[in-house]
């Protein structure tokens, strides 16, 4: 019975142990509550005015546009991804490609829904292809890059619409108009493809980069072809 009682009280002898006051006790277990609260206040946007939030988001979108216009290896598009810019570009391009009313038989361009679906469905397919090939980029990061890189083609669409405003009465003007649009669309297509590969190339295995770039090439080629072959309704 004595052994059982001793076993049930393994720390009973510790009550007789005393710590000398001469032994210094080092260390600090206090939690710096003040500094953590201060850091939380610095990064908190709950009490931020709506105007400041909108301006900050617009500034971030503008910064990403600059990265696309001057493509270089940067993690800005990947780290701070968003879909506001791609949505804006997609809607703008779809509206510009809108040939006329849905009831018009002479409509020379695709409808809004067609352009919208082609852009987003193509972006999703390219993203899934990248993930299946072992890419380290996330799903929404890829959508962000592909969406922002549509910007050169959107600018090309604006230029083509301006050129087409000149009319099509004379044959020589039609040839000049087509030549100008061909040059602008080709340059924009190359720019979009190059910019997207700059941001996406490092996230792919070295021996599979070509398999990732090829769908991107086709994606922007289809968009460029829609812009080049667009003709407004009469």
User: Mind summarizing the main beta sheet?
Assistant: none
Average pLDDT: 76
Low-confidence stretches: 34-41, 100-108
- H and E order: HHHHHHHHHH
Proportion of residues in helical segments: 55-70%
SS strand fraction:
under 5%
Defining key terms:
234 residues; mainly alpha; 64% helix
Secondary structure layout plus pairing:
Blueprint: H1 2-8, H2 33-43, H3 50-69, H4 76-79, H5 84-96, H6 112-132, H7 139-148, H8 151-164, H9 171-200, H10 209-228
Helix pairs in contact: 5-6, 5-7, 5-8, 6-7, 6-10, 8-9, 8-10, 9-10
What do these coordinates show?
This protein is an all-alpha fold. It is about 65% helix and about 0% strand. It has ten helices and no strands. Helix 5 packs across helix 7 (about 140-150), helix 6 runs antiparallel to helix 10 and helix 8 packs antiparallel against helix 9 (about 170-200).
Summarize the structure.
With 234 residues, this protein is an all-alpha fold.
